[in-house]
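Morning F.,

Quick status update on the modeling queue. The single chain you submitted on Monday has been processed. Sequence for confirmation:
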Amino acid sequence: MRHRTPSRTRRIFRGVVYLVVLTFFLFPIFWIAMTSFKTGSEYLHSPPIWIPREPNLNSYWHAISGGGLGAMRNSFVIASFSTALALLIGSLAAYGLARYEVGGQNLPLFFLSQRFLPPVVVIFPFLLMFKALRWVDTYQALIIVNLTFNLPYTIWMMRSFFREIPREIEESALVDGASPFVAFWRIAMPLAVPGLIATGIFLLPV
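Structure tokens below.
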């Protein structure tokens, strides 16, 4: 009994901790879901109403009929294209940094530092460029802006994944006559798919 009690107590304590942490993270999702079915009076009611007394879909109808569907479409297009371009261009740069050690250890940190660049710094240059190209209020303008901030993070993330891939696999392909790009595209990229997925998940909400 002396050996079982600490183990059982530890399991119970761990379960309680997991439950508290899970509740902490899932409660906002539950609250948002319940709020979406409330009426206006229930939403502003004090004290708050946890479960809607008269569930309805008015919020969803207003979001769709009031132009919200177009806004969601715009967000989807911009996020998808900027993420895809960031993964493609960033993977090429990250592979070069991982395999050829260009710029030493400081260059990857330099790329990462651009991720923390205040957006206000690039607003005016972007505005001048987009006016010259007649890209104001277009998809491509917003895609390029998002790409500017997504690309440094992609390079930093993917460089770590490429460094975990053994060089010997690519060297074998080079010995068999493959070009460096073929070794990258057909060997390194498929092996780095988990990294691409993880990086894409981080980039999409941005």
